[in-house]
Amino acid sequence: MAAKIQKPLNELLTNNMVDIYVGPKRKHWCLHKDLLSDRSPFLLTTFSSGVKEEHGNGMYLPDDDPDAFELFVNWLYGARLVPIRYFFHHKLVEKDVITLCKLHVLASKLCIEPLMNLVIDDIRRYNRLWGTHTSNIVRQYISANAVAPSPLLHYIAHEIAYELSGDPEKYCSYEKLLRGNNELSSIILCITFASGKERVLLDPAREGICLFHKHKGRKSCGAWR
After folding, report:
1. I need a labelling partner for 25 at 20 to 30 A (CA). Which of 123, 172, 174, 205 fits?
2. What is the DSSP code (8-state) at residue 178?
3. How far apart are CA 184 and CA 179, in angstroms?
4. Dist CA 204 CA 91 (whole Å)
């Protein structure tokens, strides 16, 4: 099945607008409905269903984060999530990384695979440039909110498996994170057993260009964005 070809941005900026309210405080955006429908299969189905939303011609996303939605809107209208040059001069704080993770969760909910892939690329690119991994606080957010099978969940599982392969005694630092988290623990075990004694685990920020991407109906992209 061939990938859907997106329409050019200028063809989707029509007068057909929709109000979207995000988060408990209902932060408001007025966005182009045709653009949202073209980029998100979920929103296309929602808008086509004829279901009347709480806000008339709008929709309410109470569980999503306004900061993450702001990044989504920037991407929707053609901006980069985080300029590459920013990575070379700034270390992201945990809040910034969690916002990117919240954006990945939102993109998954909206079925926007290109955005999911872009978020993963930016997280991995940052970790690669600074020689770092996601913190346990970020991992706790991911494990609690990412819906399996999530590339984001697999990414942190690969990080933990890689760290344990170099120092098994570090397991005690993950005990709180893994306690009761069967999904994440199972993925880590599968990665560890699959590697066996012959294969050395690689840093997931560097391993496999397309390893944590989603590509429905087409081959892997084969290059960093």
Report:
1. 123
2. H
3. 10
4. 19
- Give CA separation, 80 vs 77, 122, 124, 183, 197, in Å: 9, 10, 15, 32, 41
Query: pTM of the full predicted structure?
Result: 0.85
Tokens of 129: 């440039």
* Main-chain dihedrals φ then ψ at residue 28, nearest 5 degrees: -105, 135
Gyration radius of the chain over CA positions: 19
User: Taking Cα atoms as reference points, which of 196, 193, 223 lies closest to residue 209?
Assistant: 223
The DSSP bridge pattern shows strands 17-22 and 58-61 to be parallel
Tens digit of pLDDT for each residue in 64-120? 999 999 999 999 998 777 655 566 666 777 888 899 999 999 999 999 999 999 999
Q: Strand pairing partners for 20?
A: 29, 59
Peptide bond into 149 cis (omega under 30): yes
**Are residues 18 and 37 in contact, defined by beta-carbon separation less than 8 angstroms?**
no
Q: What letters, b where the CB count within 10 A reaches 16 and e where it falls short, cover 115-144? A: bbbbbbbbbbbbbeeeeebbebebbebbbe
Residue 18, phi then psi, degrees to nearest 5: -140, 140
* Tokens (6 digits) for 195: 């590697």
